[in-house]
């Protein structure tokens, strides 16, 4: 039997530097978008009588918008003020409990209702940062909370509500902690299989599209990573690279680009796409699953995957 802890040790050691470089790159990117113009919004600081880190965090989050003038449209629509305030607010989401987050979302939208253009601005920015496939802050979990509010809001049109009501159940699929939706696939050898029958301590789902530049960058990084390949060879991880769009000719022409120690597969009948089994906003879309095929990471980045292994 493969020991999860020891077979992942090489991965942790090998990937530490790459993860740090990626995190530093993201920090540098974050400092340039959006650009402040005329000063950023300053949220209230916790008073001296509030002690304990959790209490201070909760105070800042629940009082975040106390100093914000929701009627000053000119200032709010300034990228460096309104948008930056939302980015800072989203940065607090991982630090608070789900109920606190839900109450906070309700609070900010209720306050923004005073001015329609401001309400729409907040609606757009939350979607832009939490749902856009290229956003480093994207999170189905957090965006679900936003959608639940918008679906029940009288400020949202019937057409928009229909769109949100259609999106919500798709968003709720394959949550962390839940069993990943099973699907069938065909390999390059012509054999068929299903996700649930794969046996490994960890499984990575790598939804890709032949020729996608981001896919090729991720493939090249993983292909050259000695730690990752050591874990694969030791049986600690299986990577199922799945092309969901069903074009066999394109898929076969691309086979040489997929590493030999991965499972290279296609969904011939396009069930994954047509039945919305997985929400694939962009490629690559990466999931990390445990031995029971429960989702550990959903729609993740490679640094997040590496960070998870480092935390073991």
TrEMBL record:
Entry annotated with the keyword Signal: yes
Organism: Sphingobacterium lactis
Domain Thioredoxin: 174-312
Presence of the UniProt keyword Acyltransferase in the record: no
Alphabetical list of InterPro entries matching this protein: AhpC/TSA, DUF5106, Thioredoxin-like_sf, Thioredoxin_domain
Signal peptide range: 1-23
Taxonomic classification: Bacteria, Pseudomonadati, Bacteroidota, Sphingobacteriia, Sphingobacteriales
Highest taxon above the source species: Bacteria
Region Disordered: start-end pairs: 28-47
Protein's UniProt name: Thioredoxin-like
Annotated keywords: Signal
């Amino acid at each position: 039997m493969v020991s999860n802890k020891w077979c992942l040790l090489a991965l942790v050691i090998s990937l530490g530097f790459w993860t740090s470089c990626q995190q530093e790159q993201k920090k540098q990117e974050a400092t340039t978008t959006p650009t402040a113009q005329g000063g950023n919004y300053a949220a209230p600081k916790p008073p001296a009588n509030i002690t304990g880190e959790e209490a201070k965090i909760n105070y800042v989050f629940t009082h975040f918008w106390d100093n914000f003038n929701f009627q000053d449209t000119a200032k709010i629509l300034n990228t460096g003020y309104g948008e930056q305030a939302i980015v800072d607010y989203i940065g607090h989401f991982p630090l608070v409990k789900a109920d606190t987050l839900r109450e906070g979302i309700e609070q900010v939208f209720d306050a923004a209702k005073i001015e329609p253009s401001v309400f729409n601005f907040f609606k757009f920015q939350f979607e832009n940062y939490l749902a856009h496939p290229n956003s480093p802050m994207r999170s189905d979990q957090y965006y679900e909370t936003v959608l639940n509010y918008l679906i029940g809001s009288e400020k949202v049109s019937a057409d928009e509500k229909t769109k949100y009501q259609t999106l919500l159940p798709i968003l709720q699929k394959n949550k962390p902690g839940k069993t990943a939706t099973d699907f069938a696939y065909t390999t390059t050898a012509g054999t068929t299989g299903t996700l649930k029958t794969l046996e490994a301590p960890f499984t990575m789902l790598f939804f890709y599209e032949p020729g996608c530049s981001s896919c090729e960058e991720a493939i090249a990084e993983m292909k050259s990573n000695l730690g990752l390949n050591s874990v694969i060879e030791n049986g600690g991880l299986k990577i199922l690279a799945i092309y969901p769009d069903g074009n066999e000719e394109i898929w076969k022409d691309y086979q040489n680009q997929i590493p030999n120690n991965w499972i290279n597969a296609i969904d011939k009948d396009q069930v994954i796409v047509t039945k919305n089994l997985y929400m694939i906003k962009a490629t690559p879309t990466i999931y990390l699953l445990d031995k029971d095929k429960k989702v550990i990471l959903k729609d993740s980045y490679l640094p997040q995957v590496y960070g998870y292994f480092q935390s073991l």
